[in-house]
Amino acid sequence: METPVFEEIDPAGDCECPGCRHWRRVLPHAPAGRAPAHPAAYRTLVVATAAASATAVSALGAGPAAALPAAAHAPHRPGAPAGDEPGTPQGPRAPLHGATGRPAVPPAGAELAGITRTEIVDRARTWVAAKVPYSMTAYWSDGYRQDCSGFVSMAWKLPANEWTGSLATVADRITKDELQPGDILLFHNAADPENGSHVVIFGGWTDGTRTAYTAYEQTPPHTRTRETPYAYWTNSGKYLPYRYKGVTQGQAGKAGTATAPPAAAGPASHGVAGYPGRGMFRPGADNAYVTRLGRQLVKKGFGASYTRGPGPRWGEADRRGVQAFQRAQGWRGGAADGHPGPETWRRLFS
C-alpha cells in the first residue's frame, strides 16, 4: 500500500466563508509553494486517508475493517477563540432576510422611525424568550441577522441589518450618566472587526453604585440577559455608550415628535396614566415598569430596602418599599400590602 501523503493546506485568500475568514486571521501567512484551499479540503483528505487504511487492514486478512477510534481534540491554536467567551464574527450591513430580502438596504442617512424605550426592551425580550441561536449568516423569522448587531437592529426596529461598524451612524454618543434602558454599549475594533467587536443593549442599572447593569445580548449559543459589570466583561474600556437617534420618550411615532414624560408613558389602567396593572408586579415579574417603580421609590425616599438598587425583576425589596410608601399615606391592613394599585401609582408619580 502506498503511504498516504499529507499536505498542508492554507485557507483560500478569495473565499469569504466563515471558516476561511477565521483561519486567514489566526494562521501565519502561507509560505511559497503551498496551495491555498477551502478548509473542507482537510475533511476530504482525512476521509480518504481513513478509507485507504481500512482497505489495507481488510487486504491483510484481518476481516472487516474495525471502526477507527475517535481522534483526540486538537490542541488549541493561538489566537483562536476558546472557552465560553467565543469570538464575535458578524455579517455585513444587509437588507432584512439577507441578500435575497426586500426591500433593499436603505441609503445611509434615511429617515428613522420613532420607537419608545419600552418597545426596544420588549422587542429584545422576544429574542431572549425564543432563545434565538447565534449565527452570523442566518436570519430569524423577523428578517434580522442572528448576531449581536442584527439583534440591536431588531430591537431598534431598523429598516436593515447594521453591523458594529455602522450602528454609530444611526445613534448619538452619550455619557455613562445618561444611559437609559434601550441604549447600547458598543465596541467596534476598526483595525480587526472580527477580533472582539461586540454590542449589547443596556437594560438598566442593577445597583445604586452603577457598577453593574442588566445586559441584553446576542452571543453564542443564543440570546440572553444577565447582570454585567460596566462596561463589559472584557475590553471594558473600549465599550462606548450610544443612543438611537429615533428613540422617543413616550408613544412610538416619528422621530423627534413631542411625547409625554417617561412616568406617564404606557397604558392607562383604572384611569391612571402610566399604570400598567397589577400583573406587572407579581412574583417573578421582570419588566421596565418594576425598574421605573423602584427608581421613583428611591426618589421619594422609600428606597431603604434596596441593597443593590432598583432593577427590572420584582422582589421583596420592591414590595417593602411600596408598603412603606403606602403606610406613609396612612393606609393599613390590605391597603398597605406592598403591591402597587392604581391609587398607589397615582400618588407615587404625582
Number of strands: 12
Q: Kindly name the structural category.
A: alpha+beta
Beginning-to-end CA distance, first to last residue:
89 Å
Structural Rg: 27 Å
Beta-strand content bin: 5-15%
Number of helices: 7
Strand order of the largest sheet: 6-11-7-8-9-10
Poorly predicted regions: 3-9, 28-86, 251-269
Largest sheet: 6 strands, antiparallel
Helix content: 10-25%
Mean pLDDT: 75
The coarse overall form would be elongated
One letter per element, helices H and strands E, the order comes to EHEHEEHHEEEEEEEEHHH
Name the descriptors.
single chain; 350 residues; alpha+beta; 12 strands
Structural commentary:
The protein is α+β, with helices and mostly antiparallel strands. It has a 6-stranded antiparallel β-sheet with strand order 6-11-7-8-9-10, covered by helices on one side. A two-stranded parallel ribbon has the order 1-2. The relative contact order is 0.09. Helix 3 (117-130) packs across helix 4 (148-155) and helix 5 (288-299) crosses helix 6 (316-328). 24% of the residues lie in helices and 13% in strands.
